[in-house]
């Protein structure tokens, strides 16, 4: 296990404050920009960058830099990406849907950043339950439940912003079952992989993301 030298508490607090300001700016400006029709195309084009900045903030404040953490991160990325690949080309797992242009470059008709999205969401929801729930399976269940609830809030916005489209414009119940199942698997890997799970920015960032999509549910013409 590699130990990473930590900055003094005052410096850590200052970095955390700066990061929270960045998060607020990132998601408030994004929500406002996407809510204004004239500016919406520009802010849609920034969606992959927004997700990558979020990833950068998650990794910057991550404390458990063991040899196993990059392995977990890669598994989370490729399991999520692979599930989407199966979904797009077979209709299994999530139902019939196709991706739009908003999420950027694609590989086999699936945006590359979708794997980042799976990793980030599992990491953030997992961090919230990491200390409060000792049982791995129950924690994975709660994490998967939280992610499915997040997806329920995100789905209408995603379609409105050309992230993905559902056949007949109907979000099937199968989608939420698939989300729960894939989330549970990755959450279980998160729990079983030995690295420090605490991240001082995780809860704040997760709340910002939830509020971002919740606000857009009211400001967009869904």
Task: List its traits.
222 residues, mainly alpha, two-stranded antiparallel ribbon, 8 helices, 68% helix, 5% strand, globular
Q: How would you describe what is shown here?
A:
The chain is mainly alpha-helical and 222 residues long. It has one domain (18-32, 46-219). It is 68% helix and 5% strand. It has helices at residues 9-35, 40-45, 47-60, 68-90, 113-129, 136-160, 173-192, 202-219, and strands spanning 97-99, 106-107, 110-111, 164-166. The strands form two sheets. It has a two-stranded antiparallel sheet. The protein has a two-stranded antiparallel sheet with strand order 2-3. A hairpin with a 2-residue loop joins strand 2 (106-107) and strand 3 (110-111). The model has no long low-confidence stretch (mean pLDDT 91).
What is this structure, in a nutshell?
Keywords: Membrane, Transmembrane, Transmembrane helix. This protein has 222 residues and is mainly alpha-helical. It has 8 helices and 4 strands.
Beta-strand percent range: under 5%
Distance between the termini: 48 Å
Query: What class do helices, strands and sheet pairing give?
Result: mainly alpha
Radius of gyration: 17 Å
Can you tell me the overall shape? globular
What is the string of SSEs from the N terminus onward? HHHHEEEHHEHH
Strand order of the largest sheet: 1-4
Topology readout:
Blueprint: H1 9-35, H2 40-45, H3 47-60, H4 68-90, E1 97-99, E2 106-107, E3 110-111, H5 113-129, H6 136-160, E4 164-166, H7 173-192, H8 202-219
Antiparallel strand pairs: 1-4, 2-3
Helix pairs in contact: 1-8, 3-5, 4-5, 4-7, 5-6, 5-7, 5-8, 6-7, 6-8
